[in-house]
Specification:
The chain is mainly alpha-helical. The chain contains 21 helices and 6 strands.
Length: 528
C-alpha cells in the first residue's frame, strides 16, 4: 500500500513541481543583481544571527518577517548566496504546490492543474530571484486567499485558523498589497456571514489572530523592541510616503489597461459567467461560486492597484495561470458551449503570455533593471568572496565592465578588513557584514535620497531617525562611518550624514573610488 501511495501519479506531479520551482528560481537568482534590491535582506538576515533586530537596531519601513525567515535559512543552510536565494526558491515551490492542490480540490483535470501550476512557478518568484518585500507580501496574501477559498468551500476549521496567520506574515513582509487584500477579505467575510447566516468561523479566525498578535508582542518584549518604534516605523512613517504617492497617482489607458491585458483576458471568463449568473440565477449571492468570484476579482484588482501606485517593475503576471485555471474550472462547471475550443485557446494564451514575460523578466532580468545587459560580460561572484559562489555578477551600473566593479569592491573590502576600529557602514552593497563577519551597525537597510527608505530632513520623523543614528554611535562607540557607493550614481551623499550630525564632527577622507570615511572627532552632539 505504501509503494502504491508513493507511485501515485499525483505525488509524482507534486515532486516534479517542487523540484522545478526550486531549480528555476535558483538559476535566475544567480543571474545578475541590482544591489539595492538584490541584497535587501542579505546583511539584515545575518545581523539577526549576530543579535540585532529591526526597529531597534536599524530603521525599517518593510520586510521584518523576511529578515527573520532569512536568518533561519542562514542558520540552517549556512551564510552564503545560495542559501539566500533558496529562501525565495522555497517560497516559489510552496506557492506552486499550493496552486496545484487548490486547483485539484476544485476537481480540475490533473494535467491542466499541472500545466497552470508550472506556468505559475515560472512567472512567480524568478522575476526577482532573491527575497523581495513585494513578492513576499503578495505571495503570503495569495496563501491567505487560497485558505479563504478552501475555508468557504470545505468548511474546515484549519483554513480559518491559517487565514489570519498568512495575512499576518504578508503584512509583516510589506504593508501593501497585504493591507488592501486584508481589508476586502474582511468586507467579504461580513457579507458572507450576513447572507449565509454563518458565523462559526469567527471563533477560529479570531483565536488565531489574537494568538498571532500575542506572539508578536511577546517577541517585541523579549527582544526589547520599543512598541512605539515599531508603530512609528511600520505604520506612521510609511503612511506619509503612501499619501504622497496617492496624491501623484494618475490613471492612463496604457498603464492600467494595456499593460495588464493578459490578466484581464485570464479573468474574463470568470467575470462573464458570474455576471450572467448574478442577472439570471435566483439567489446567486448565496452560492459559494459567487464568493470565489468576488475573492479572485478583488485580489486581482488589489494587486493591479498596488502596481499602479508603487510604480515599481511589474511582478504580478503570475496571476495569469491562476486566473486561467479558475476560468477553466468555472467554464467546466457551467458546461459552456464550445468549451473544448475555449480551453485550447486559454491554454495557448497562458503558454504564450508565460513565454513572453519569462523572456522579459527572467531571461532579460527586467525587474532588476538588467534588460539591456549583455550577460556574456558577467564575472564570478566568488571573486569577491567564496560566499558568492555560483553568482554571475553583473549590475546595471557596471554592465560593460563587471570585473572592474569587483576590483573596486575588493579594494573597499580590503581597507575595511584592516580597520579594526568600531565602524559603521552605509551602503547599498548590503553584504559587507557577511563577508567581513562583523557588525557594521548600518542604521538603515537601504539608502536612497527620495525619502522612501528613512526620514529626510523635511520629514516629521527626521528626529526619530537621527536619535536612532546617534544611539547606535554612542552605544557601540563608533569611531568612523564609512560609505561605499559610486560617484556616478551616488545615493549616499554627504547629506546622508551631515543632515543628522554636524559636519564639524567629522573628518572626511576619500579612500578609493567607492569608499569614503567620515572619522568622528570630539563634539558635543555625540558625547556619551
Amino acid at each position: 500500500m505504501k509503494i502504491n501511495i508513493f507511485f501515485n501519479r499525483e505525488n509524482w506531479f507534486l515532486i516534479f513541481l517542487f523540484i522545478f520551482s526550486i531549480l528555476i528560481n535558483q538559476y535566475y537568482g544567480n543571474k545578475g543583481i541590482f544591489p539595492v534590491d538584490s541584497f535587501a535582506h542579505f546583511d539584515s538576515g545575518f545581523r539577526l544571527l549576530l543579535g540585532d533586530h529591526p526597529f531597534k537596531d536599524y530603521w525599517i519601513v518593510s520586510g521584518p518577517f523576511i529578515d527573520y525567515v532569512q536568518a533561519l535559512f542562514f542558520y540552517l543552510f549556512g551564510v552564503n548566496w545560495q542559501s539566500y536565494i533558496l529562501h525565495a526558491s522555497f517560497i516559489n515551490a510552496v506557492l506552486t504546490i499550493a496552486t496545484f492542490l487548490v486547483l485539484r480540490d476544485f476537481k480540475l483535470n490533473i494535467f491542466y492543474s499541472f500545466l497552470y501550476s508550472i506556468l505559475f512557478s515560472i512567472l512567480a518568484y524568478p522575476s526577482s530571484g532573491t527575497p523581495f518585500v513585494d513578492h513576499h507580501s503578495a505571495f503570503f496574501s495569495l496563501l491567505g486567499i487560497y485558505s479563504l477559498i478552501l475555508a468557504i468551500r470545505n468548511e474546515k476549521k484549519i483554513y480559518w485558523i491559517l487565514l489570519p496567520i498568512f495575512f499576518g506574515f504578508a503584512f509583516l513582509s510589506k504593508q501593501t498589497p497585504a493591507a488592501y487584500i486584508i481589508l476586502f477579505t474582511i468586507l467579504i467575510l461580513i457579507t458572507f456571514s450576513i447572507i449565509q447566516k454563518n458565523f462559526y468561523w469567527i471563533k477560529y479566525s479570531l483565536f488565531s489572530a489574537v494568538l498571532f498578535v500575542f506572539f508578536l508582542l511577546l517577541h517585541g518584549l523579549v527582544q526589547q523592541i520599543n512598541f512605539y518604534s515599531f508603530f512609528e516605523q511600520y505604520f506612521l512613517y510609511p503612511q506619509s510616503i503612501g499619501s504622497k504617492r496617492l496624491e501623484n497617482f494618475s490613471f492612463t489607458y496604457r498603464g492600467a489597461i494595456d499593460h495588464f491585458k493578459f490578466i484581464y483576458i485570464a479573468i474574463l471568463p470568470i467575470f462573464y459567467i458570474n455576471f450572467k449568473n448574478i442577472l439570471f440565477v435566483k439567489n446567486y449571492f448565496k452560492q459559494k461560486n459567487f464568493y470565489y468570484f468576488l475573492i479572485l476579482l478583488l485580489f486581482t484588482f488589489s494587486l493591479i492597484f498596488h502596481q499602479l501606485l508603487t510604480k515599481n517593475q511589474t511582478f504580478i503576471f503570475f496571476l495569469i495561470p491562476i486566473l486561467m485555471g479558475f476560468s477553466h474550472i468555472t467554464l467546466e462547471a457551467e458546461k459552456f458551449k464550445l468549451s473544448n475550443f475555449i480551453f485550447l485557446a486559454m491554454i495557448l494564451i497562458s503558454i504564450f503570455a508565460t513565454y513572453k514575460y519569462h523572456l522579459r523578466f527572467n531571461e532579460s532580468r527586467k525587474f532588476h533593471e538588467l534588460n539591456y545587459v549583455d550577460f556574456d560580460l558577467t564575472s564570478k561572484g566568488n571573486q569577491i568572496d567564496k560566499k558568492f559562489l555560483g553568482l554571475k555578477w553583473i549590475t546595471p551600473e557596471f554592465k560593460m565592465n563587471s570585473n572592474f566593479e569587483i576590483v573596486l569592491i575588493n579594494e573597499a573590502k580590503s581597507h575595511l578588513k584592516k580597520d579594526k576600529r568600531n565602524k559603521m557602514l552605509m551602503t547599498n552593497y548590503s553584504f559587507f557584514s557577511v563577508i567581513l563577519d562583523e557588525k557594521l551597525y548600518s542604521p538603515s537597510r537601504w539608502y536612497a535620497l527620495d525619502g522612501t527608505m528613512y526620514p529626510l530632513k523635511e520629514s516629521s520623523y527626521f528626529n526619530s531617525f537621527k536619535n536612532l543614528l546617534l544611539r547606535l554611535i554612542k552605544e557601540n562607540k563608533i569611531e568612523v562611518i564609512y560609505t561605499v557607493d559610486t560617484e556616478e550614481n551616488s545615493n549616499i551623499k554627504d547629506a546622508s550624514i551631515y543632515d543628522y550630525i554636524n559636519k564639524e564632527c567629522f573628518k572626511k577622507i576619500k579612500i578609493t573610488k567607492l569608499l569614503t570615511s567620515y572619522e568622528l572627532k570630539k563634539c558635543n552632539e555625540i558625547k556619551d
